[in-house]
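worker-3 :: picked Elongation factor Ts
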Amino acid sequence: MAAITASMVKELREMTDAGMMECKKALVEADGDMDKAVDVLRTRGLAAAAKKAGRATNEGTVMTVVAEDAKSAAVVELNCETDFVGMNEKFKAYAEKLGRAALAANAADVEALKAASYEGESVEDILTDAIHVLGENIQLPRATTVAAGGVATYIHGGGKIGVVVTFDVEGIDPASEGFQTYGRDVAMQVAAASPVAATRESVPAEVVEHEKAIYKAQAAESGKPENIQEKMATGRLEKFYKENCLTEQAFVKNPDQTVNQYTEEAAKNLGGSIKVTGFVRWALGETA
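worker-3 :: tokens ->
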């Protein structure tokens, strides 16, 4: 049996908000497996889904850069050793430069970005220069670009969370102030509410199956007849979709409407159609 340490109990508690003793019991039952321990707590109704950003530790920033036509965007994460450098304007300028390099190269990932050049300077040289100027170990752990009918971004906490949302747009200029105001609101929603997917159709099949298994186990604990258990599980899955699918979530700025309803309202006001198609949400250090 795996040794259950105080730090493991603390980590599980931070991830789930469950009590200390419940966390310890769950870890013992799961033989030290953190993910299984979360499921044990959820089955017993002692915890909601684990907080994704619980292990984010690195200093640095997440930076987004949007093309002038607002139809493509890049997001990069740049890490450093101290918060002092992470909040430094020179450091932010390097992150923005790397974001512009990613956008110019249409870099799908960090390997593609590291192989690229920008304004006559290789990305590797830009990183080396940052290390020399700032005097810290600077790392570029990830980068990507997205393209769509329209994109909008939001940065939270000075670079602690970066979001890019993609849209299908008809009859509206995605670079217009009206669309970008709407798009930034939706990106802010992603930062605040941390949805699993843009729509219920885009929730990964394995996530749906995992949630179903949890809800069926919860229903079985109730001791009610099987047909009632099935209804309980279905109802909880529906609640999961409403809480975790971006378009079905209550809009943070106006909880009386969903993000989908806000989208329909914005499209009507802007004289066209808008559909949310996806998003990228990166929290600083979550890859560490």
